[in-house]
Amino acid sequence: MSLHIPGVHFVNRKHLTVAVCTALxxxxxxxxxxxxxxxxxxxxxxxxxxxxxxxxRISNPNVVSAQPVSVLTxxxxxxxxxxxxxxxxxxxxxLATSFTMGNSxxxxxxxxxxxxxxxxxxxxxxxxxxxxxxxxxAMAGDTAVDTNLIPADWIERVEIITGGASAVxxxxxxxxxxxxxxxxxxxxxxxxxxYGSSQHGSFGKSLFAVTAGTNFADDRGNIAASxxxxxxDALEFRDRFGNEDLVTINTPGGKYARSYFKNGGSYEFTTGxxxxxxxxFSNPANLYVFNPDGTYRPLRIDGLRDxxxxxxxxxxxxxxxxxxxxxxxxxxxTFNTAGSFDINENHRLYMEGLYNQANSKSxxxxxxxxxxxxGGHFIDPDNAYVSPALNALTGGQGFVVxxxxxxxxxxxxxxxxxxxxxxxxxxxxxxxxxxxxxxxSVNYGRTHETRENFNNRYMxxxxxxxxxxxxxxGKIVCRSQVDxxxxxxxxxxxxxxxxxxxxxxxxxxxxxxxxxxxRDWFNVTTKSKTRLSQFVAGGSLVNNNLFELPAGPVSLATxxxxxxxxxEQINDPLDKAGLTFLNAIPDxxxxxxxxxxWIETAVxxxxxxxxxxxxxxxxxxxxxxYDTIGNTRAWRYNLDWAINDSLRLRGNSxxxxxxPNIGELFGGQSQNFMIMDDPCDAQQIGRGKDPAVRRAxxxxxxxxxxxTDQVTGSNEGLSGSNPDLEPETGKTWTYGFVFTPTFLExxxxxxxxxxxxxxxxxxxxDFEQMAQRCVDNVGGINNTYCANxxxxxxxxxxxxxxxxxxxxxxxxxxxxxGASYSHEFYGGKMSWQLDATRTLxxxxxxxxTSPDEKVEYLGALGYPKWKxxxxxxxxxxxxxxxxxxxxxxGVARQTDWDTYKADPLFLAPAKAGSGTVHDVRVSYxxxxxxxxxxxxxxxxxxxxxxxxxYGNTFGSGVYDTIGxxxxxxxxxxxx
Length: 975
Description:
- It is a multi-pass membrane protein.
- This is TonB-dependent outer membrane receptor.
- It is built from 16 helices and 50 strands.
- By secondary structure, the protein is mainly beta.
- The protein has a domain at about 245-320 and about 370-405 and about 460-515.
- The protein has a 22-stranded antiparallel barrel.
């Protein structure tokens, strides 16, 4: 069927030209138009056309988006050589790198997931759509989407809008919307294969895809499908950076208070074990280490030492790099299908289907116990592996071994995720004039995840086997086998009969001392299951010519939507009972329903006047009724002002809402570990808002003025959900212009200022904030914060409790700059493109009621001031070549900019310089054969990330850790 929209011209939709070159801005409720054609009877024939452009549900050809729209085309995606779309999106300036493939393994059960974070406001505040409709979430209790499961070969383009879009799309669109436009029709068969690898070692990536489709019923219908398989190898730290052991050392008397050094680490624990002959770890002169053969010797420190933090260079230290993973092993298989059938020229049925299976495997550290974090392993004086000499050295009272149990095996996760999605709908036109367009659909999705945590230490078994004694006949057995009533010194309880019966004794003196039989016995594989489901039913009506005004027709869109979200996580009984080394995570389950009504309109105000070619005012409002939080309302209004054919001004103001998700409401409370500084430490006690108050309260806690925080690892605590949470609210403003000069064909420039204010933000105090609020309280220590911070008899923090609250606020603003220019060049076409974001401010208010308490993050790791992507493409005959450059400005190494400003000489190097990475790609199309071959190089100049800006931590995704990599690919389309 020949389909056409009068007045709409389709062009090559590169980034940022879309708001000027396209005449429609409708999405989610597809836009339609009528085509009038003379029939034999002289009657008009109405035909259906669908155009999808993110930003509004109004489809009036006279309206252009008042919100900035960024577009990533299929050609842009191909030019990157990526096999997973998540790797492409993280390079876009508007998106943060808080949850990439590279740093996805830092949380339990998230390896291999890529979730998008617009404006650094959190993945839970970025709404991801597929063809304008919602997608089921990827993690328990959350609605954030794993974009890695979206088939890269099936994508036509990705459209991104900034700012609150809750009035148009509903909850979660606080910072904006990312809409994946997938193929709806396809004819023929296409094969695609690609393979690539890093020059620094075994990190291969591959992709194979087949797409096929055909028309039927005299071209009234089309059915298409694709099958895509992508995989990548794991990448270990040592495969990329070798033996670069980095450590920060306090350097009193130097220019900087603390500096980075290589060949160092913490001497608090090693793979062979560290112990103290006096029981105190504060003086390294009292410390001994075990050799691999089980003998022992004094701790060696031949370089610098930081006694307070127990760190050193050129010394016996823990080698953490061998457990550091830069990329998880990952493979996915995705089946995607789409179909449509025209019942007649006014009504169409359509469907979309997706099934994805993704497997990921990540490796981390082995189980460990350090003196400062978990108390170490206590060895009784009558332990069968303790020699008389060792007993004498330690005073015959037993001793603590601080040890990284690497010889017990690295802990890891093996995760399998299965996601399905099915959309069934009808679209068309109604009314005698065909001026009402309708779209009605149902959308069902579900995610099933099975996670296995292997080499997970069963704590009772481990400590039962560690407590080895001589049974009186010269045989080494477990104490619980000799005396079932004995209390284990590490657990503080007796050992169960089941464990005692199978107990295997072992020793931990020296790297490799733990026997394989013991490892197989005390290490277990625990399993958890997660199930999420989503059901959405909705319908919309759009009229682009409701009635006429002098400046043009008024447009109206309205609709209803019902959505139900469910989530359930069932954890292994051993884990949730706290019997393993893994965090104790309780089961969680919950659901919510929401019913919504939305209305949107566009009203032309002025037309064909001096300095006003046209001016349109738009507005939208959405009313929502949740069965968890009650009623909410979101709104938006915008103004679009075309001064002439070359210059257009636009502005937008909106109020967005985010309802608490299932995990925040019903996720339960679970064990957590956080690295923190004790505010009563001698180096921290003077840093409070009122140091005198902090000193007085620390003293009231019974801590001396020279108190030293001896916890060098992470602190244990409890964090979790709150069923009484309220919705978050966000205000967004965008103002900008689009310049497409008639005197310079092919050129487009747009500049947009954006500002987002988030209020009532759901947040929990981290452990350090909880401790700070305790001792910075002017009313003394009898407050709820101090009640949630437990300390041992020696004053060290032992446990912190924190739950979610609506307590925080955030503000960020910046400028987006986009430019593109295409022109003829030596018989071919040259295209230039720039996409840049200058963030002007990012401020976090941990307590929205205390605006003077704020943290400036702009310029800190993960919050660069500038982020940009520039590219040039040249096409001539059958050749196609491109060069792209990714840029990120320098950042401070501290976790926030305030820390750097307060003490710029605290850490050396204090800042990481700007980073630039170049990629190239060349392809050749064999005309009339169906063959296309291509190849490329990513990180052409093999740029290294800044020192210590890599690994499985937040912000590490900003930098390329893979190094120079090559890829080759081929496409073949059957003709």
